[in-house]
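Section 5.1 Outputs to date
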Amino acid sequence: MVKLLQITDPHIGASEDYRLAGVDTRRSFGIVLEQASLEQPDMLLLTGDNAGDCSEAAYVHFFQQVNQLGLPYYWLPGNHDRIDTCEASEGATPFERSFVVGSCNIIMLDSVIPRSPNGRLGEAELQALEQSLAENTSANVLVCLHHHPVNINCAWLDQQMVADADEFFAVLERYPAVRAVIWGHIHQEFNSEHKGIKLHSCPSTCIQFKPNSDDFALDLAHPGYRVLELEDDGSFNTYIRRVEIPDLGVDHSCLGYE
């Protein structure tokens, strides 16, 4: 068995004073990472919005906190990120699109539209996905991205979902080894299925968005992460761990952020 942990949307700020809807995102990220490390995972998958402002200073702190764990990890960009700035930051690791853990090939995608909260893969990214799947020799494939590829019944967030989701799923459906798709962005747990492919999102390490909400709203749920336990035969078990953080400081009167 391979144990993977998905950790997402830390929104690290450039300064110690940075707050997102009242939350000290460096502190909440550190507490979630510390708790996650107790799971003794084989690897961390960090699925975007690593920084809150795509600044180099924010990425330096992001990588400092992750590297302190001494665990293998891979990351992908979210709509608040810039790949070039992230990769050029002190302590950074490169954005890698495909790698193998045990019997599983993990594919990381870039769904970011520059200067937009919305998601899209585009022709080049879809071609890269197709090539990775065509070259895959592993028994199982896990696909990771930042934006959600299906409607989650949150009107304001569903405007931001992957615009070419139909093309995305058309590629996946041609390859039976694809077991699951995971993503971040929506700051809440979501579980569904598409033609035998499991679909899962993950809570943020800071603020949580209220499920089934037409407009921006914050939830009372705690930060968390997702555990994925992959067996060699292709079966897997997945669940959410919540991390209770004292004095998290969420400002529930917040009406949104950029």
